[in-house]
Design brief:
Helix content: under 10%
CATH superfamily: TonB-dependent receptor, beta-barrel domain
Membrane topology: Multi-pass membrane protein
Distance between the termini: 46 Å
Number of helices: 5
CATH topology: Maltoporin, Chain A
Radius of gyration: 26 Å
Strand content: over 45%
Family: Belongs to the TonB-dependent receptor family.
Protein name: Ferric-rhodotorulic acid/ferric-coprogen receptor FhuE
Keywords: Cell outer membrane, Ion transport, Iron, Iron transport, Membrane, Receptor, Signal, TonB box, Transmembrane, Transmembrane beta strand, Transport
CATH architecture: Beta Barrel
GO cellular component, one term: cell outer membrane
Largest sheet: 22 strands, antiparallel, barrel
Number of domains: 1
Shape: globular
């Protein structure tokens, strides 16, 4: 008995873009461009957009990678749909979203284009079940089910993100990605160490066209936002078995914050080759650079010294003119895949990534006088960091027969080494240095900084073996079981912690049961797990055991119209134990380092749902919501600054009577949040952000078969809201708009 619906099927859209002739001049030019990008960082350009000619009203267009296969782990092109046919998210098995026994959201390139989501962070802000806290202009933390998300993967290769340091992971440009997959709950089977929140996987675009094609887009928007993106791909050999693709872009934008500017450039190049009929090789290079002036650290003081709330404008920028935040990211990757005649696939992936940041910032603290505006002080920090990640992953997957039925199996080994280095120099600014905040213009003199000194260094290694199998127990019933065995080790050397090393082995089991109620609906239950080592020590100097996360989930899923529309409803419970908590005023024996103890019994539980895809031939939408509670072992709320109930809706509608015109928009709503903090009097005070909704609109018009224009408006009603609750304020973006032109060739 064959497993249901694991084979991808679809129809490639009939694009009417002008096809350039495969002449030697063009081929040579693109070959030079690809090779230059592979060996030299820096440049500018692009993203893939809607085909030049809109499909007819009675056709559902599902664009598929012609090299994809149901038994392959090769990424599939998400095309022009909101839903995907198959995914490897969560299990590593190539399954329909309905067959994955976890909550999974996939944000495709079409939806990214419609909403003009230019960064990974913007995508997460519009993902069901994900919430955020913006700490300052450069740092935004993302949460799911009450827990911080620290697992980001690139084509399935994970990178662990530290909450305290910002390497710009959430600001990665989306132009180079085909889709972004978010698996909520514990996802230790594929990611290794992490929190039981969610995992975010960015799937890169590839050179999958055997004819020359491309597009160029230009955007101008609020606060002088200028952006240009170029995407070109085509054959590098006469047969088309070797193909190249280059995506490059440049963006220069100001902000609603005074004196803020961000210049970004990126280039991505990949070569995909069919070495044989069954063997493919993909190599690529990705470089992204960001240069920020007027970067903030923290925000605007919440209180005056008399205890009254401050009333600074949303445009108030507490950063001096000399502040900056610069990030450079370089990634090189290779992927070799072979399809055996018996249906098995073997894939080997390797990547090397280096990310550097250099930031000089000032944190504004204290309480200004309500009359004179004087009283705030500043803490200056010059921080430099470097992160290197080397990873190798080898995975095999395919079908096997047992007891007269066909099943699926994957097995893999992985190794990763991540080295993080930080240096620092700090200084203090007095109230007289800062001056009157009511007359603040950022012209405060820079400090005489001391030389950078090493702050901390850490090297983290993970060696893992993992496997999962999908057993067809009966025609309507399947069981997925798996586990990951991880050897985790770390070496630390910090100013406060000194030299230390720590290692831990862990097994992360996975189990899911799926029952097909009928051809449309399935029910499932699952258990997933994950672990997160921590560098906290007890009073006697012992490292705390890793934080453990366990997720229990049950729900129903459905798909209609050959998988073009999907829906899911789930109830979940996540348990987190061994979370490090400060041990009063106790210190680690023989040091001045704060001691910790392991707290047990943190629980998050709730319900979520999502509908995603093509409702009709002309209407695409995504609509979902989450409501949950999250408490520690005393019953107190954790992460109370995260909304407990959220709803997110976005839709696009192509007018049947005017096929060239598409209209759309969305709403994001969240309930009230709060945070306990300390007022100038020293009293404990609870501050709130009331519930609010943000409304976005967009429209696109196909001017000619090759040229389209798109208008996006965000925060239509100019809602004022705070994205951080503490002793300082960070406001969300006011109303803004952008106009984009896209030309296909």
């Amino acid at each position: 008995m064959l497993l249901r619906a694991s084979k991808f099927s679809g129809q490639r859209s009939n694009q009417s873009a002008v096809i350039l002739p495969p002449g030697n001049d063009i081929r040579s030019a693109i070959a030079i461009l690809v090779c230059s990008a592979l060996y030299a960082p820096g440049s500018s350009a692009a993203e893939n957009t809607t085909p030049a000619t809109a499909p007819s009203a009675d056709t559902l267009v599902i664009d598929a990678n012609t090299h994809a296969d149901s038994n392959s782990t090769t990424p599939q092109n998400s095309g022009h749909a909101y839903a995907v046919k198959t995914t490897t998210a969560g299990t590593g098995l190539t399954l329909t979203p309905r067959d994955v026994p976890q909550s999974v959201s996939v944000i495709t390139k079409q939806r990214i284009q419609d909403q003009n989501l230019q960064s990974v962070g913007a995508v997460l802000d519009n993902t069901v079940g994900v919430t955020s806290e913006t700490t300052d202009s450069e740092r935004t933390g993302y949460y799911s089910r009450g827990f911080y998300i620290n697992n980001y993967s690139f084509d399935g290769i994970p990178t662990n993100v530290e909450e305290a340091w910002n390497f710009g992971d959430s600001t990665e440009d989306t132009a180079i990605y085909d889709r972004i997959e978010v698996v909520r709950g514990a996802a230790g089977l594929l990611t290794g160490a992490g929190n039981p929140s969610a995992s975010v996987n960015m799937v890169r675009k590839h050179a999958d066209s055997k004819t020359w094609t491309g597009n160029i887009s230009g955007t101008y928007g609020s606060w002088n936002n200028r952006r240009t993106v170029l995407d070109v791909q085509g054959p590098l050999s006469e047969s088309g078995k070797v193909r190249g693709r280059v995506i490059a872009g440049y963006q220069d934008k100001d902000s609603y914050l005074d004196r803020y500017n961000n210049r970004k450039k990126f280039i991505y190049a990949t070569v995909d080759a069919d070495i044989t009929d069954n063997t493919t090789l993909s190599v690529g290079y990705d470089y992204q650079q960001s240069r920020v002036k007027g970067a903030t650290w923290g925000g605007i003081p919440t209180w005056y010294s008399n205890g009254d709330l401050t009333h600074y404008s949303r445009s108030f920028n507490p950063a001096p003119d000399w502040t900056h935040y610069n990030v450079d990211s370089k990634k090189v990757f290779a992927n070799l895949s072979h399809q055996f005649d018996n249906g098995w696939n073997l894939r080997a992936t390797g990547t090397h990534a280096e990310t550097d940041f250099d930031s000089k910032l000032m944190y504004l603290s204290g309480f200004p006088d309500a009359t004179t505006g004087v009283g705030a002080t500043g803490y200056g920090g010059w921080y430099v960091g470097k992160r290197k990640v080397d990873s190798v992953d080898v995975i095999a997957n395919g079908p096997f027969n047992l007891l007269g039925r066909q099943h699926e199996l994957i097995g893999g080994v992985s190794y990763s080494r991540q080295n993080n280095q930080y240096s620092a120099s700090t200084t203090l600014f007095s109230a007289s240095d800062v001056g009157n905040l009511d007359a603040w213009d950022g012209s405060m003199a820079d400090a005489n900084w001391s030389d950078l000194t090493p702050y901390s260094t850490e090297t983290i290694r993970q060696k893992a073996v993992y496997s999962a199998a999908r057993f067809s127990l009966a025609d309507p019933l399947s069981l997925i079981v798996g586990a990951r065995y991880t050897q985790w080790s770390a070496e630390y050397n910090g100013v406060y912690s000194g030299e230390a090393s720590y290692g831990k082995n862990n097994i992360s089991p996975y189990a899911g049961l799926i029952y097909d109620i009928n051809d449309t609906w399935s029910a499932y239950v699952s258990y997933t797990s994950i672990f997160q080592p921590q560098d906290h020590q007890t009073v006697d100097g012992k490292f705390l055991d890793p934080i453990t996360g366990k997720s229990y989930e049950a729900g129903v899923k459905s798909d209609w119209y050959n998988g073009n529309l999907t829906a899911s409803v789930a109830v979940f419970r996540t348990e987190e134990d061994n979370l490090g908590q400060t041990d009063g005023n106790n210190y680690v024996e023989g040091s001045s380092q704060q001691a910790y103890y392991a707290a047990q019994g943190t629980v998050s539980k709730g319900v979520e749902f999502e509908i995603n895809g093509a409702v009709t031939d002309n209407l695409k939408m995504t609509f979902g919501g989450t409501t949950y509670s999250a408490t520690d072992n005393t019953g107190a709320d954790i992460t109370s600054n995260m909304p407990r109930t959220t709803f997110k809706l976005f839709s696009s509608y192509r007018l049947p009577q005017l096929q060239a015109l598409t209209l759309g928009g969305g709403v994001r709503w969240q309930n009230r949040t709060y945070q306990d903090t300390t007022a100038p009097s020293g009293d404990a005070v609870r501050i709130y952000q009331g519930s609010y909704a943000l409304v976005d609109l967009f429209t696109r018009y196909q001017v000619t078969p090759k040229l389209s224009a798109q208008l996006n408006i965000n925060n239509l009603f100019d809602k004022t809201y705070e994205t951080n609750l503490s002793d300082y304020i960070v406001y969300g973006e006011p109303r803004n708009a952008s106009l984009s032109l896209n030309y296909s060739f």
